[in-house]
Amino acid sequence: MYHIWNRGAGRLRLFKKDDDYLAFQQVLLEAHQRHPLRLLDWCLMPNHWHFVVFPETDTQVSDFFRWLTHSHAMRAITHRRVLGMGPLYQGRFKSLPVQADEHLLTLLRYVQRNPVRAKLAKHAAQWRWGSEWARSHGPAELAAILSAWPVARPRRWAAWVDAPERSPETEMIRVCVRRSSPLGAADWARQTAARLELPWPLRPRGRPAKTPAATGDDGKELRPL
C-alpha cells in the first residue's frame, strides 16, 4: 500500500472552483482507464491532494500518477490561458509505503480528515471532493474505480474519523512524510526501506497511538478496531 500526495507549485491553489475539481475527476477516470490501479481512498484539497493505493505491479504507481499529474497540469494551464505561469505542481508526486494493518487505518483516517482539519467541512463524509462522498453519492463511474480495503473497516468508522486526533498519531504520519520512511511497525518498516532502497532514520518506531476516548451515541468508547 502507498500514500501518494502532491501540492500546487508555491502552494498555489490547484482547485479554485467546483469546475476545477470536476475537471480533475474526469482526468482521474481517464487515468484509471489507461493505467488501472487499485484506489482505496482519495481526498482533493484546494492546494493539494492525497491518494491511498494498492498496486499489483512495480510500475503501476508511477504509470498512473505520472499520467494523471501531467494530463491535469496541461489541461488546467490551457484552460486558465496562462501558459507562462510556470508549472502547476511543485514537482513529481511523493509516495510513502504503509503497512496493511492499523497503520493503514490511521493513514486512511488522516487522509479523510483533511477537510475537517482545514475547517472546510464539519464532517469528513460531507466533503464532496473525497472518496467517501463518491462511495455514498457517486457519480457511479467515480465510485466504480474505488477498490475494497485490504483491512476491515471499523464499526462506526465515520464517527471515529470525525473524532479529534491525538497529536502523536498525526505527528507519526508527518514524520514519515518528512523523512520518506515507511509507515508501519519497526521491523516491517526497516525491511521495506531496505527492499525499496529508502533512507531509514535511526529513531524509535512503533504502532500508531491509540485513538482518543471519543464516545458514540450509545455512550461507548469509539475505537478503530
Could you explain how this protein is built, in words?
The protein has helices at residues 18-34, 60-80, 102-112, 114-117, 131-137, 140-143, 157-162, 167-179, 186-196; strands at 2-7, 38-45, 48-54, 94-97. By secondary structure, the protein is of the alpha+beta class. The protein has a domain at 2-155: Transposase IS200-like (Alpha-Beta Plaits, 2-Layer Sandwich), CATH 3.30.70.1290. Strands 2-3-1-4 form a four-stranded antiparallel sheet, covered by helices on one side. It is globular and about 45 Å long. It starts with a strand and ends in a 29-residue tail after the last helix. Residues 211-225 have low confidence and may be disordered.
Comma- or semicolon-separated keywords:
about 220 residues, alpha+beta, Alpha-Beta Plaits, 4-stranded antiparallel beta sheet, 9 helices, 4 strands, about 40% helix, disordered C terminus
Unreliable stretches:
211-225
Distance between the termini: 19 Å
Give me the CATH superfamily of the domain at 2-155. Answer: Transposase IS200-like
What can be said about the biggest beta sheet? Answer: 4 strands, antiparallel
**Mean pLDDT over the residues:** 86
Topology-level CATH name of the domain at 2-155? Alpha-Beta Plaits
Based on secondary structure, the structural category is: alpha+beta
Order of helices and strands: EHEEHEHHHHHHH
Question: Percent of residues in helical segments?
Answer: 40-55%
The proportion of strand residues reads: 5-15%
